[in-house]
Automatic annotation (TrEMBL):
Membrane-anchoring subunit of succinate dehydrogenase (SDH). Keywords: Heme, Iron, Membrane, Metal-binding, Transmembrane, Transmembrane helix. It comes from Sphingopyxis flava. Its cofactor is heme. This is Succinate dehydrogenase cytochrome b556 subunit.
């Protein structure tokens, strides 16, 4: 039941937060270099930023990590539902195992993506 609830929540979260972030990004690109620089300073990185941008930078990264987790949670939950639609995996032990694997897989995949991004940011 929890996997199904999280599937709905992450789908809504991806649709709402993801679209808002995407639209902000598009508007920043359309508005010019200064607006785009402000967008990047808020969500990604600006070493010369003031206190406001440092706080929004942390919040921006939290949102990006959250969207990454929501993506993987929704993906793995959708794959689980796809398998269930074939009629497989309804046995209680198997269903419980797959439910746990959805959460574990989402957390591990999110960690792997952000560790890779951190590695590239430090060495790139």
């Amino acid at each position: 039941m929890a996997v199904s609830i999280f599937h709905r929540i992450t789908g809504d979260g991806l649709a709402i937060a993801g679209v808002l972030l995407f639209l902000w990004w598009l508007c920043a690109i359309a508005a010019g270099p200064e607006a785009y620089a402000a967008f990047v300073a808020c969500v990604w990185h600006d070493p010369d930023a003031g206190t406001f941008h440092q706080v929004t930078n942390i919040l921006g990264k939290i949102v990006l990590v959250g969207l990454t987790w929501a993506f993987f949670q929704h993906l793995f939950s959708g794959l689980r539902h796809l398998v269930l639609d074939t009629g497989a995996g309804y046995e209680l032990k198997i269903n419980r195992l797959w439910s746990i694997l959805v959460f574990v897989g989402a957390i591990l995949s999110t960690a792997a993506v952000w560790l890779y991004i951190a590695k590239e940011a430090l060495h790139g």
